[in-house]
Amino acid sequence: EDQVTQSPEALRLQEGESSSLNCSYTVSGLRGLFWYRQDPGKGPEFLFTLYSAGEEKEKERLKATLTKKESFLHITAPKPEDSATYLCAVQAPGKLIFGQGTTLQVKP
Amino acid sequence: DAGVIQSPRHEVTEMGQEVTLRCKPISGHNSLFWYRQTMMRGLELLIYFNNNVPIDDSGMPEDRFSAKMPNASFSTLKIQPSEPRDSAVYFCASSPLYQETQYFGPGTRLLVL
């Protein structure tokens, strides 16, 4: 069964304290792995798509990496405005399967 | 680019009433998805359409739920009759083609009393 597990469920960081979020997946034939950011009261906002092991993508303080079994979202020197829930999803035939998300809080 | 548009943004109704949620996808996108988000179950796919045709409705919880896409720029999700356990945030998303990046709307927050 296709499955996505994210850890930790919640993460508190001080501003400038770098860390990583984990997304472990089980899917028959990965067609793509997606990272989204969701702010309270809003819809998920697309961040990255990764297609093959070894691929990396960056956007400002965020960098996503992919292996054959998991993906990491690295946050370098985070700022309070990076506080949000980060969702990981894998592309199964015709649909995305989402993890439960990691809620990140960055304190000034 | 207006993005995905959903209405209403908030809906409060009483158990047993009919609820209709509306979605306008991004112009030119050929795939449309309806999701439900709750604290307990996270984000779940209910149904998706390709070129206005329903492809997979296996996520629709019960016969009380129905979805239509009469044309490329409009879709509805209807719940009849509504129940308190239907309370959730309902998202619509669209993508240019099948299996490409999905772009989400702001959601409709539904509360059934």
Write out key terms for the chains shown.
heterodimer; A: 108 residues; mainly beta; six-stranded mixed beta sheet; five-stranded antiparallel beta sheet; B: 113 residues; seven-stranded mixed beta sheet; four-stranded antiparallel beta sheet
Protein model, in words:
The complex is a heterodimer of chains A (108) and B (113). Chain A has 108 residues and is mainly beta. Helices cover 0% and strands 59% of the residues of chain A. In chain A, strands 2, 4, 5, 9, 10 and 11 form a 6-stranded mixed sheet that branches. Chain A is globular, with a radius of gyration of 13 Å. Chain B is mainly beta. Chain B is built from no helices and 11 strands. In chain B, strands 2, 4, 5, 6, 9, 10 and 11 form a 7-stranded mixed sheet that branches. In chain B, a hairpin with a 2-residue loop joins strand 7 and strand 8. The mean pLDDT of chain B is 94.
Give a quick summary of the entry:
Chain A is mainly β.
The helix content of chain B is under 10%
Largest sheet of chain B: 7 strands, mixed
Describe the sheet with the most strands of chain A: 6 strands, mixed
Measured distance between first and last alpha carbons of chain A: 41 Å
- The assembly state of the depicted protein chains is heterodimer
Q: Largest chain interface and its two residue counts?
A: A-B, 21 and 20 residues
By secondary-structure content and strand pairing, the structural class of chain B works out as mainly beta
Total number of helices of chain A: 0
Which series of helices and strands of chain B comes N to C? EEEEEEEEEEE
Number of helices of chain B: 0
Rough outline of chain A: globular
Q: Helicity level of chain A, as a percent range?
A: under 10%
